[in-house]
Design a protein that fits this description.
The protein is an alpha/beta fold and about 280 residues long. The chain has helices spanning about 10-30, 65-80, 100-110, 140-150, 170-175, 180-200, 235-240, 245-270; strands at about 40-45, 85-90, 115-120, 130-135, 205-210, 225-230. It has a single domain (about 35-270), classed as Zn-dependent exopeptidases (Aminopeptidase). It has eight helices and six strands. The chain binds zinc ion.
């Protein structure tokens, strides 16, 4: 059978060179321009490997926090990448990683933000809600203190590792460092912005922004937060935050909060100062 559209004739032929040029242009351009204020973000799925995290009470056989932190982190990373942000995850699979190695990675990469994702639990089930933490030596309350103690258990920490309990003066030195002081201040803003976007994505309580001595945040040279997306050992909330629908909604909230941070806090600082107006003294 002969071609119904002979070579060199028909609409396709005229579009050929144009189409080629358009494709070349598309290839040359990045898929999505980087959003304002965010070059690289490190997302940390809490726990992993032998560090199981909190057990779920809604799954039989029992499933653990480490599985869901990874799933939510992957969703957050996907959403941020769609927006043009470069994302590095501290772990891409179920493996051990010390708390110090996680924040060290973010420091080495000079990340703009570090977000560690966790699911909460209590010895006696009952509480619900999501909360976001930034670093402080003193916990906001008893519940925050107990939570930090649980999250700070680090089976793979090595001797001399900063994730092992450190004397208060050493931690004080870290906090006094100027770069880290600014990062610490920005961490509060990051926590507030994440919490604000997380709240509409969960039908459970907004427990607010809090502070606690999380080892995974110590020594951060960038704003770093721990977000606890809900209680895995509460029947209704545990079911929601481990469901595909719940995890997607929560990941969307976390990602939008990070993008807000870039736009509202980081981007205005990187704008060049406006030139002096003629006539200025
Ligand atoms: Zn955890």
């Amino acid at each position: 059978m002969g071609s119904i559209c002979p070579r060199g004739r028909g609409p396709g032929a005229a579009l050929g060179p144009l189409l080629g040029a358009a494709l070349a242009l598309l290839v040359a351009l990045p898929a999505v321009a980087a959003p304002p204020g965010l070059r690289l973000v490190v997302i940390d799925p809490g726990h992993g490997g032998t560090n199981l995290g909190a057990p779920s009470r809604v799954h039989h056989p029992v499933r653990y926090e480490k599985e869901f932190t990874l799933k939510v982190a992957r969703k957050v990373a996907a959403r941020l990448r769609e927006a043009g942000v470069t994302v590095v995850m501290t772990r891409e699979r179920d493996r051990d990683m010390s708390l110090k190695a996680r924040i060290s990675l973010a420091n080495r990469l000079r990340a703009d933000a570090f977000v560690s994702i966790h699911l909460n639990a209590t010895e006696v089930p009952g509480p619900t809600g999501h909360e976001t933490f930034f670093l402080a030596l003193e916990a906001t309350d008893e519940a925050a203190k107990r939570l930090a103690t649980f999250e700070n258990r680090d089976p793979v920490a090595v001797e001399g590792d900063a994730t092992a309990p450190v004397p208060d003066d050493a931690v004080g030195d870290i906090l006094l460092d100027l770069t880290r002081e600014r990062a610490h201040h920005d961490a509060q803003r990051l926590a507030e912005l994440i919490q604000r976007r997380l709240t509409p994505q969960s039908p459970f309580k907004n427990r607010g922004v809090k502070q606690a001595p999380f080892f995974v945040l110590m020594g951060a040279a960038m704003p770093a937060v721990v977000t606890e997306i809900g209680f895995i050992n509460h029947r209704a909330e545990g079911r929601y935050i481990t469901s595909e629908k719940g995890m997607s909604a929560i990941a969307e909230g976390i990602a939008e909060g990070i993008l807000d941070y870039g736009r509202l806090v980081n981007a205005p600082r990187s704008r060049p100062a406006s030139p002096p107006t003629p006539g200025d003294p």
